[in-house]
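Hi R.,

Here's the chain you asked about this morning:
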Amino acid sequence: MDVKPFKAFRFNASVVGDVGRCIAPPYDVIGDRERDALCRKSPYNIVHITKGRTAPSDNERDNQYTRAAEYLQTWLRAGALKEDDQDAIYGYVQDFELGGTPYQRLSFIALARLEDFGKVVRPHEQIFAKPMQDRLSLERATAARFGLVFMLYEDPQGVAERIITEAMTQEPPLATQASGTSTRVFASGRPAHPGVSGSAVRGQETLATIATEPLIDFLDEQCVRHRLYAITAPEEIEAIEKMMQEKSCIIADGHHRYTVGLTYMRESGNPKARYQMIAFSNMCQEGVVVLATHRLVGGIAGFQGGTFLAELERSFRLAPFKFTDKTRESAKQLMLAEMRRLHERGNTAVGLYLGDDSFYVAVLKDPSLMTAVAPDKSDAWRSLDVAVLQKLVLERQLGLDEEKMGDARYVEYIKDVPQAIDDMIERVDAGAKQIAFFTNPVRMPQLAEVTEAGERMPHKSTYFYPKMYTGLTIQKL
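And here is the predicted structure, written out as tokens:
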């Protein structure tokens, strides 16, 4: 993998104020309500560009993409976005908790030479055509890249992590407050830890003068702490470049953005487009966490729960977990525990709920059933819970084709965030959807095996948590 430093465009605190209010989650996890809330946070929030509002009057000359280009140019002229004064590789640190356990994921952001999918760059998921066209339209209009492609590589030596950790440990000492709590304070006098009062930002001095302090430090709505560091020392940049020359990478998140990068590179002829802004994480670190993506299904004409279960039992062994109003929560937890137990033993297990008095765990009876419906796939692909769910249930039994699986009226993909499962159950109970399918997360060895076979998992197979936020660095082409 050929990587190099670059001069990122970043939000300028002297113009925009709190930079933490200008950063946003990736466009594809933002709904209309979340977008509107982000827009209210700041007139400079990156969501104005990455997920602009549409209007009935939109036409070829005035639409969400032309307006995104106008926002970008206006912000550049106003100095709200400024290019860094020297090349850097950016260390990106995310601190978070899951189930009460603290984690830290270290990544670095650099430019990487775009490669066709193959041995150097391996995709792991199928993509939908509509979001790809959306991102391509945005890149054409703005000649810029805003969201991060998230890639995994394997480095047991932890070269990049050591460099990023050194940058973190060179931060100024904590300033002790009268209350006894400790908060990092920069020259601006503002506390760095956003859990106290917003976020601390840097953006007015040169990179050389702030190389040992975070460029930005903020806490998002899910209590994930995001920090960005500039790595400018030539020997450190060279160490990362040299390490990556020996690596192949798996796209963890951002398949659409990477594919658009390839397309734009070819059609534009712009030499700057040959390199893409990418965040790289070493899969050897504990902070690389994969969560499940569940499915909510509706819109099936003539659907009858009893008939569906009877047909399902032809291919799956069903274990019901019956409940009353008082035992519903415990039954749900028993279902999830059984799914995990089976998953850890190498069995294919999917949970489901149809709005009756039971949760169910469906276990595939015979792996040869997958061979029959996916003869061209590897054993690793056919053993995926999400692959079994898609081929044998969504496609064969419910008759959902590729187009319908990309249509939220039929299938919604629900990331396994807190309360997600309870929200799914409520929507089935309310009649908004017909079936809730619960899946286990893909294991890292499964991810490696499928990509090494040159295959892609079904749509929305993985949920790498936390998300790489948009607006920390921007690549102008």
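One quick note: The first helix runs from residue 13 to 16.

Cheers,
M.
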